[in-house]
Model the fold of this input.
Amino acid sequence: MKSHFSISLRLTLWISAAFICGFVAFGGAMWLDLNHTTSQGRTKTITGRARRLAELLQSTQFEPSDRESAKFNDFAEATPEGRFIQVYDLDRNRIYPEPPAPAVDFPWPRQALDGTAGISEAPYNGRLYRVFARRIDVHPKPLLILVAGNLEDNRLLLQRFSFGLIVSTPVLLAVSALCGYFLSRRALDPVDRLTASVRSITIGNLSKRLSFSATGDELQRLAQTCNEMLARLENAVGQIARFTADASHELRSPLSLIRTLAEVALRDPRIDDSSASAFREIVTEAENAALLLDDMLTLARADAGHVEAVFEPVDLTSLLAEVCARAMPLVDVKRHTLAVDFGACKKHSICGDETSLRRLFWILLDNAIKYTPAGGRIALSLDCVNGRSRVTVTDTGIGISAAALPHIFDRFYRADASRSYEEGTGLGLAIAKWIAGIHQATLTAHSDEGLGATFQLVFPPAA
Ligand code: ADP
Done:
């Protein structure tokens, strides 16, 4: 199932949810336990009072006298809730405190007054009381001890506990979300680093390997597996590159032999017109095939890491002027105008491989001439932006569609519009991109279909 949330966000949510569920369960259990303990404690207190009173009454075998009343009063006064201890006979006549002495008008529950022993609850003055009734057999008649204990403290304690739980929930939620985010980031950071390393590996640097710490965990296994896969890929690509390079190299000789033989045949004065035309075709095709082989050999060598480049100071102004001069015959044939603008630069030196750069500029200029209908305008300029040399080639040609634009630097790619328009191999811009790459330069293309194209090469700042 596709999720729109990142793993770290999902982990954060899960950790927070688990934390909060745990906290709610723990808080609930604590609340129940507190409720039970305090309630038990209250019951124990009032039953204890009833027991002590029963012992007192039984020890005297109930001799209602002033002395006994005084004993009861002493007991009641010594007890925190002494006003809620009363003694009745089974006819519901109050024995202690002895009438007419005033007593708390407590609403003793009916079952307590009926002599049913046990625990019940009754409200009094807006508070809840726990009531305990105990029947004792003393001479001459059985008595009923009624004791009530206030449950208000318990209620307040539970209320304060619940309040504490509720108030701490959002705080805990925030803390757990922060912890969750921090933990998930910590756990996923190595994954991000691994992803960035994998992304940086292209066909041009397949010898690169992912670095990992020897933790023995899943990530180490993943990195090792990726490295093994990269090794296999490097080996396979190396084999293909070597095969392409060897094949291109081996095909060169028979091709040049075919071309030479065709040229020799063309020089024979006895040759008839149709044979001459066929041999001229052979020469042209052999030339095209030789160019294609040359391009393939360049790319195959580039893939295999054989960069035959000599980096030394190159004056871009004179190199571009040379390439333009070489292109002039083609420009003239198509009746284009070629505008060259070097701005104020008399000399513009960069560090590069002159042969490769000549080839790159030629590819850009040749394409501009090729893909511009006769009578078009081509402009080549050189300037310096933020310390970077910039070469721009613009034409008023057929342009490149938005769909084709992202692919023009791919090998053997040719836009549909250009296929029917001009001959080509589809390797020129791939080579141009590679040459730009070994110079740490960026080569970009902009175009509106039908309105021409602009290629821009920006070199790194001069050291
Ligand atoms: P090709 O040998 O086909 O010219 P390239 O690699 O040089 O191969 O160019 C790839 C494709 O990019 C061309 O086939 C063409 O469709 C397009 N292209 C390149 N330069 C231009 C340009 N200046 N104007 C229009 N299309 C161009």
Q: What stands out?
A: The pocket of adenosine-5'-diphosphate is lined by residues 363, 367-368, 371, 395, 397-400, 408, 413-415, 418, 424-430, 453 (CB under 6 Å). The chain has ten helices and twelve strands. Residues 218-303 form a domain with the Helix Hairpins fold (CATH 1.10.287.130).
